[in-house]
Model the fold of this input.
Amino acid sequence: MSDYLCHEKSDFWAYLEISQKVAEAIESVLKIDVTIMDSNMLRIAGTGRYREKINERIEKKTAFEKCLLSGKPQIIAEEEKSSPVCLDCPKRLVCFEKAEICVPILYKDKPVGVIGIIAFNDEQKQKIISNQEAYLNFIQKMASLLEAKYSEIQMGKENQKLSMRLNSILNTIDEGLIVYDSRGNVLYRNAALDRLFKEMNVKDQDEFILKIWREIRTRTATANDDPDGGPNEILIHQDGECFAFLASVTALKENDAENEFIITLQNLKRLQKKVIQSAERNQISFSFSDIIGRSSAFVEARRIAEKAAESDSNVLIYGESGTGKELFARAIHNSSKRREYPFVPINCGAIPDELLESELFGYEKGAFTGAYNTKIGKFEVAENGTIFLDEISEMPYPLQVKLLRVLQEKEICRIGSNRIRRVNVRIISATNSDLSKKIRDGLFREDLYYRLNIIPIHIPPLRERKEDILFLTEFFIDYYNRVFGKNIIGVSKKAARLFLEYRWPGNVRELQNILEYAVNFESGREINEVLVRKRLNLDGDKSGKAEFKYDCDGRSLEERLKKLEKLIIEEKLVSYRHLEGKCLVNKVCEDLGVSRATFYRKVKEFGISLKNDTVS
Done:
């Protein structure tokens, strides 16, 4: 039998025992027989002729049942057998009971039993009639004693169940947990703590737990005696080894009582490994051998990138949208000494300004409304690895100051925290904008630019790499042949000429997308000009240049440029009218080489409608 069942059974017998004592006490005072029953109408205590009937059920439709169901006292006195209480009783005509008073035993305002006195002779009956009010009051007080005992037992059961449930929960969590009193005595430790110590090969666990307490108290003593906090790194030295944990401390404060402390522990090295492994699983395996191109300018960019992989200096990659800036960044990381650690990309132009800081540096619990838990920022996630800041030109100016500090001091501070954290991260950034112009316009810090631009890499656009266009075309056709099970041998001469004349605003990404489309829909052996022209929306224009018609009236150059910008955006929206929502916006941004933030700003400025993919 489990400890809980034994405990429950012992409580049950204790209640029966006190019930019998109460019955006997009442009988000794009043000299009238007593019966006590439970909620199942089982007699659990009795005196006189009912003593031998303990554990028997009391008949239904009696005064006792009515008392149990109504929760109100029931009294039978002068009107013996003709009392309204007795009218439904099956034993009314043969009943030996001459008078009785029944009182409910309550728990949380609900009847859980009945206690009553029964007269079997005229003398006892007369006592009840003469002292009805006094007897009723006396029995109610005795019922209160049983109510208190019953309540104590039920609360004990509930606490026992709660304790078992809580213990089960605490033993299923992965974190090791210790509860200390204010003197460092261990009040509780969960099963995960034993698993943690076994995993870390801790020998003397008692001594180790004492050292954890000393370390925690030392830290909290220097934090204005506020023990709540975490997670924080703690180091425990024992047997010539250093054990690193991520620890959180919570104080249990109960009025004027001494504090108790809950300490949760995680193996810091294992936790870091999990983060790294998670990042690695999401990381695309990409090397310089995957970056293909024959043009001299492209080969030179790849050579510089290969050289950059050998150092740990910051890299700034320049290039239009679709040229492969992130692929270069991944190849640099995967060929560097940091390749076993995370590569963490973040697009500075795709995240709202007010959220970018928390994404980069993280925040503490309670730092602002909605910060229900501590969040680790991208710089901490990328520890010992590489962080790739795409569209760096879109970073808000105030945040550039904090990034500069990271570059100079190798330190970060989460939002809502005063604790400085050292970070070891390499920064590779990329831009499709002219940072020199941004600096002149006061939108980008010059000192930050020089910190980022240690090793500049310029990726030329596809239109300047004519010798790469057909080479990449063959590569992508071969790739999609394998993917789709096709056998296309190449492109027709007219299609090839069209490819060479087209300006490729979306660069390699656009070329790849068009060839995926063409391999899907080409029914012949070669990709023909008609299919390509249809996909490019050239409408008979062999050059691939958009023909924007606008008047040349006497307006200023700035006004004319704005009108031209609006026409270009509208043209692109019409070109991709078959797309919807984010797909439409992303495609237009890719082709125009602008961020989503810039696109939406222009749309608002020029009054362009995006509803139903139409323009105003």
Observations:
- The radius of gyration is 42 Å.
